[in-house]
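Q: What changes when iron/sulfur cluster is included in the input?
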Amino acid sequence: MRILKPKSETNSPVTDDLHGLTSKYPETECFGLRDVNVEAGIVRFKFIKQLHLNKMKNTGIYIHIPFCRSKCYYCDFYSLPASGYSTETVDGYVTALERQILLLSEKYGKRISADTVFFGGGTPTLLEARHFEKIFSALEKAFDLTHNAEITVESNPCTLDCEKLTAMRTLGINRLSIGVQSFCDDELKTVGRLHSAKHANDAFFCARKSGFDNIGLDLILGLPGQTRESFLRTSEQAVLLAPEHISVYGLSLEEGTPLYNHRENYSFPDEETCADVFSDTVRYLRKNGYSRYEISNFSKEGYQCRHNLHYWHGDEYVGFGVAASSFYNGVRYTAKKDVSAFIRCRTAADFEALCVTEEVLGKEERAREYIMLSLRLSEGFSVNKLKELTRNSDFYLKRCEKYIENGLLVKKSGRIFFSDHGFEVSNSILSEILY
Ligand code: SF4
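A: The predicted holo structure follows.
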């Protein structure tokens, strides 16, 4: 079996070269892009890159695997259920991914420096070891992976076993994100999850046994039938397992999903209860050693998800596969949601034709996105950086003042960030600051 060997950390000349391409815009390529999938369809991030501020930063690589065993009732992320694909489809998709990655390196004739790889979906753990091996082999040719690159795979507990996890670990995957969602079987069943609490526990122990020392668990708050007590049980069980990272996402009812279409048949906990439970959870997790470094994300020291930090810091990233997103040379791209068309792609032009340019950000939009993304993080935004981004920084800073006075925002050491209470009402404050 081939072992992924990340390259030593360097300031890649390629990264510089890519930055130099800014002037050539809009001839930049599309590598694909996507919203961050928290393996749940819960939170959507809008990305931005402040190119001129990130000259020497490494890139994040995202790879979308659009296959699931079945569709969970709340999920609107792009993935096909088992009835919509065959083994040949998965093989063909992985071959097309390999092609897309290699075409990137051919195009530039140089390699890009990257320090994170994130397999999201869908359910990436439906892939077999040979699929990962093929993708890694292409990544090795196209990118300089730093020696400590974070390589994450999102997973569904019912697709994990010790053999697969050991193979994944051997291939160099060093971070596992498990979509637990709840440790209450009734709640899991209500939203069409195929796994049980036992599956999730077993998967976790197998992952540990296989050598994963960086594991994240995703939980959902607001599931039908969920109560204060049942969520407490879920968070207690999560803490008992002692993962390095815990995400707590609020359920979002997305139009078109079965949960949305039949919402009157479900009994959802009310918003006030969810907000209370969330506040309790923040305190509980903190007491147990998990710092809240982002609105919905908690980690033990040194275990923040570095890939997602790329998004929140406005760094550059490239995505491969259908529905994948990239933010590159100041332009956002999204790849179309069409697996068959993706598999048919043979040339760089074919892949580019599958991409849609979403947005070209002007200076003011960059500044707004910088504030918006940075305020998701507990470290908030840098006043100096904002001043570099826009001549209108006073406009935003002035709007922050009243929230600093009433304690919803904190200003400290040249940065502005939300207090705990401010995080709870962050959406309304953000729209007041930005618009
Ligand atoms: S397993 Fe994850 S990606 Fe697949 S349908 Fe369920 S929530 Fe969506």
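Observations recorded in class: Residues 39-41, 68, 71-72, 75, 77, 79, 121-123, 156, 179 surround iron/sulfur cluster (CB under 6 Å).
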